[in-house]
Design goal:
By secondary structure, the chain is α/β, with parallel strands linked by helices. A 4-stranded parallel β-sheet has the order 2-1-3-4, with helices on both faces. Strand 1, helix 1 and strand 2 form a beta-alpha-beta unit.
């Protein structure tokens, strides 16, 4: 997932209609469908869910991406894709490499600033790392997403892997990348906040992860 250096951007076709809403997913391998069929990844499932509402999803996620890498390319991606909404799902690789919390925070803030300056809304998705990387470091890493959301007046960030982070059977052999079976659960974790940002009704029902 995070330590791979393979970089591949998977784009879904999007309408040239200026009236259409364009949603850009900006993440790493957790959003790039690493190790599974891209058509079964949560981003592809999101496209299927939102397409009837006239929303096009463009996946600009790269396996192995750090917040620094994301910052380096954000202006070019914003200029090329021209999204109305950016779903920011970066930081996991920073955490697994033990990069300073302040550096990750600064990079994410700069990505948010660039996105808002381009006239797009931002949805921030929370990322967490295992406590074996250090309990205090893991806590600070988790909290930085809530701090950024508060400072930038964004919706409270949902945890991408909420409800199944401890289910080993829903992860690939590396114990880092979710399997195909986990993708619908990821979608349901992020869909409410995305719908809210798109000014769409948010259903009260949610997929329950069975034990």
């Amino acid at each position: 997932m995070f330590l791979t250096i393979t970089a591949a951007i998977t784009f879904m076709s999007f309408s040239a209609d200026a009236r259409a809403q364009r949603l850009m997913i900006y993440g790493d391998s957790l959003s790039a469908a690493y190790g599974i069929d891209p058509k079964k990844g949560w981003v592809s499932l999101l496209q299927s869910r939102l397409q009837p509402d006239g929303v096009t999803v463009i996946n600009s996620s790269i396996s192995g991406e750090t917040t620094r890498g994301g910052l380096n390319r954000i202006k070019a991606d914003l200029a090329r894709i021209k999204p109305n909404l950016v779903v920011l799902v970066l930081g996991a690789n920073d955490g697994l490499r033990g990069l300073p919390i302040g550096e990750t925070r600064k990079n994410l803030q700069s990505i948010i600033n660039n996105t808002q300056a381009a006239g797009a809304k931002v949805v921030l998705i929370g990322v967490q790392i295992p406590p074996n990387y250090g309990i205090e470091y893991a806590r600070q890493f988790r909290d930085l997403y809530f701090d950024l959301a508060r400072i930038n007046h964004l919706s409270q960030p949902p945890f991408l892997l909420e409800g199944f982070a401890d289910r080993l059977e829903w992860f690939q052999a590396d114990r880092l990348h979710p399997t195909t079976e986990a993708q619908p659960a990821i979608l349901e974790n992020v869909l409410p906040v995305i719908r809210k940002a798109l000014n769409q009704p948010v259903p009260s029902s949610k997929v329950t992860v069975k034990s």
